[in-house]
Amino acid sequence: MRRFAPVSVLVVVVLALCAPAGGAQGAPVKLGVPVPLSGGSAEAGQDILNGARLAADQANARGGVLGRQIEIVSADDACDAQQGVTAAQKLVDAGVVAVAGGYCSSAALPESGVFHTAGVAFVADASTNPQLTEQGFDNVFRDIGRDDQQGPFAANFMVDDLHAHRIAIVHDNTVYAKGLAEATRTALAGKPGVHVVFFDAITPGEKDFTATLTRIKSLRPDVLYFTGYYAEGGLLARQFKALRVPGEFMAGDANNDPTFIKEAGAAADGVLVTSAPLAQFLPEAKAYIAAYRAKYGHAPGPYSAYEYDAVNITIAAIKRANTTDRAAIIKALARTTDFKGITGTISFNAKGDRAGVNYMVLEIRDGEFTAYRAAA
Amino acid sequence: MDPRRRQIASIRAGLAIATGLAALVLPLAANAYVTDVATLILIYVMLGLGLNIVVGYAGLLDLGYAAFFAIGAYSSAILTVHHHMSYWLTIPVAACLTTVSGAIIGAPTLRMRSDYLAIVTLGFGEIVRITATNLSFSGGPDGVWGIPRPSIGPVTLSGSAALYYLGLAFAAAVLMLAHNAARSRLGRAWRAVREDEIAARAAGINTVSAKLKAYMLGALLGGVAGSFFAVKLTAIDPTSFTFVQSVNILMVVILGGMGSLPGVVLGAVVIVGLPEVLRAFQTVRMLAFGVGLILLMLLRPQGLWPSRMGTLGRHAAAPASGRPEPTSQAAASG
Amino acid sequence: MDVALQQLVNGLTVGAFYALIALGYTMVYGIIRLINFAQGDLYSVGAFIGLSMLSLLAGLHLRNPLVLTALGLVVSMGATGLLGVLIYRVAYRPLLRSPLSILISAIGASLTLEYSLLLIYSPSFLVYPSLFDTGGPALGDLVVSWMQVTIFLVSLALMLALYVLVHRTKLGLAMRALAINQDAARLMGIDVSRVIAATFFVGSALAAFGGVMTGLYYGQISFLMGFLAGLKAFTAAVLGGIGNIPGAMLGGFIVGIVESLATGYISGRWKDVVTFGILILILVVRPRGLLGERVVERM
């Protein structure tokens, strides 16, 4: 039989070439991962991709899916709408059976349109803009909470736990940050005795925010809530302390990155961050953190755990559908209920959003994210 | 015309026909991804042709051309989404608005020297983008979503190929317009202004009016490109209209060879195509792009497909300014 | 009043950084009429080289912050200056006679620098060691750190030194001659290429100084940081009158203060609109910028 081996290899190769959509038995099942791999959010994108690769490797070690290996195909969207559309189209043409990934909402939104047209499932792991699942696309799912859930959570926390009356909200005029800022302001509007004394944006990419902070200082806020990304968040926290602005410094979930702490230095101490639970606070994620460390040599970032779950949910859906047909996978994904992920138990509601999401408040203490506990 | 020139002219004509044919059959042979990239190239061809009028013909350095692209895109997007206008009716509106804004930007700046013009146009570009980000009627940072695909009668143009052909029709129309403008009396006035403004004025050309018209026509073409961009992407937001975008469009013009129409087409292919070809290399692609730009310029400083007019004027500027206007065969090459 | 004063301090600090970068733009422009798009990126390169130097010295158990800073600055300014000269030699000198191709080459150089930094260092930002505390003189509610005072004074001193270099030395005389007429300067026996190289060296070294200071003061650097800063510095250079050295300083401080006041009294979202609006108004009234073209008299 030996001499047939090269022939069968040839057959596989020919089949793989002829059927890029992955119809051939034995050819790998391709899963698409659009993430930023260049630009300011490249590190977050790489972390998400790492999570996807880890999930695929582990599944392949268990024999893959439908008897075939899983291949992760990544595409750089650079957090940019235009590049995102091309990256998404590239994934579709590469023959991916489903897509799990994304980081910036500004790229994920237009990407979701391309995937919708192509009839490919898109499981978002980190894009929290509500609009993503409000477009009425049946192929879009999300295993993380939405900004209009985080906003009310942050508002309740500021009022109930911090007893704040004067609140300053700072965003950076990006889709995500402005969405979260507005959701928070809306949630605060109904609360008696609470005033949003400041609501304005900084420019991402700049380094000096003292002019904004000086204005905020003169308004004597009880809390400043920053809804942008950590690159500016760390600088803001630093300058907030240096300018001796009164009140607490609190930030949204794009600041739950360890780099925030390095950047803010001593000023990080006491900073509060609203966030979906990080891997280290998830009891089921212990093995994941160990495996990630073993493979990549450092701790996982904030979103790779959600991406790991997104990939595994997709694999489970392919198994249930028992085919790699794109439409069948979408149908199977919609029926995801009580999936035991490392970020908790996941079910999708009618819109494709995760049902019953949790948020927590992190407090930075001695250079670590800890769970917030009210001062006694 | 000496035989060598005639030969070159026929080679050029042959190439133009071959390119046209290739462009016509492309979606039949290529997959949706390649067709999409080709559509993006068409958008940059339109933008390049528009900016070429300002920079290539009239010699006015514009670093904020994305502003017109933005105004065109937002006009069509807002009118179709919020006012349910037919896409086809939004095109003349977009064209009018961009032409008027071209005049508004042009009027106070035309007496400035080119380098100062560059920063003023850059400033206008940023003002337009920031305003679109800050105002709610333009959707703020979210931009405008769900722009409907255009339809002809009962047929909706939604596939990659259909939109490609729509883009091709737009680009062809823009190309014809630019071509005719270059050969017109106005086109000759622009080149005279570019080569030597004082001499042009002495020859009786109203230089301010010529420059203003260059701005307005350039703006109009950018607006048409923007209008098409909006229906192609179905979602636009302010991040598509940054300073980097203006620089990309300028690169299309200069890389191809200023003032040359085939050069603009070639420049668009390189500027859009090169990063896509390099996509396989992920992280090094922007580095390779940067090094590639330097190398291209060092090897072909006059651009990939220079206009013969342009090179003549540049290398022999002093004597050329006294010469009579070149006749139609030189203009045809431009 | 305290708030207004604080905004002025904020503006002067930002303005000092803009001014340092703007000087490079203005010098290069004055001499070869090139908008050197890579100028902002040389500022980033300076910051990164400074960080490497500081890490290296920390590995050698050097602790004295002043010595560390001084060594970091000297090495970074020297290396970045040489890099500026290298870019000129490779990417600009062959194109001196094609004014728009050289512009594309400059854009290429800018991208090359940015993405080399990304590959060599990090796609994200890096954190500088904090060598100095954030303390400052006690001025009531007004917050000024000793570091801000130092940055402001050293920047002014450097700009003054540059002014002396251009107006009181032989090299400066050659630079000014070149700016007026390159061919005539060559006929007078000036080594044109060397003088241009020297201009690039000085402009790049000043940007590197700004870069290291940015790292020390703000604590965070990234490969793209030169882009926005460069854009603002370019604005500042034109506002002051491009080609004019005191103009670049003045322009830098004006842009910094306008930004700070616009943020404080109008809105952070509109500050760039205000800045560019003022720039356009000034250019319409004074088409050659605030201080005109004293250094450059051409066209």
Shape of chain A: elongated
Spatial order of strands in the largest sheet of chain A: 7-6-8-9-10-13-14
Q: Estimate percent helicity of chain B.
A: over 70%
* Gyration radius of chain B, rounded: 20 Å
Largest interface: B-C, 45 and 46 residues
Counting DSSP H or I runs of 4 or more residues, the number of helices of chain B is: 15
Using the 3D structure, state the CATH architecture of chain B: Orthogonal Bundle
- Kindly report the spatial arrangement of strands forming the biggest sheet of chain B: 1-2
- Strand percentage of chain B, roughly? under 5%
Structure description:
The complex is a heterotrimer of chains A (376), B (334) and C (299). Chain A has 376 residues and is an alpha/beta fold. Chain A has helices at residues 5-18, 42-61, 81-93, 105-118, 131-134, 147-161, 175-189, 210-218, 230-242, 258-264, 286-296, 304-321, 326-334, and strands spanning 29-35, 70-76, 98-101, 121-124, 140-142, 166-171, 195-201, 223-226, 248-251, 272-275, 339-341, 344-346, 360-365, 368-371. Chain A has 13 helices and 14 strands. In chain A, helix 2 crosses helix 12. The longest helix of chain A has 20 residues, at 42-61. Chain B is an all-alpha fold. Chain B has a single domain, classed as ABC transporter involved in vitamin B12 uptake, BtuC, CATH 1.10.3470. Chain B contains 15 helices and two strands. In chain B, strands 1-2 form a two-stranded antiparallel sheet. In chain B, helix 1 (3-29) runs antiparallel to helix 6, helix 2 (32-57) packs antiparallel against helix 9 (207-233) and helix 3 (66-82) packs parallel to helix 5 (114-134). Chain B is globular. Chain C has 299 residues and is mostly helical. Chain C has one domain: ABC transporter involved in vitamin B12 uptake, BtuC (Orthogonal Bundle). Chain C has helices at residues 2-32, 39-59, 65-92, 99-120, 146-168, 170-180, 182-187, 192-218, 225-240, 245-265, 271-285, and strands at 125-127, 220-222. The termini of chain C are far apart. Chains B and C meet through helix 5, helix 10 and helix 12 of B and helix 4, helix 9 and helix 11 of C.
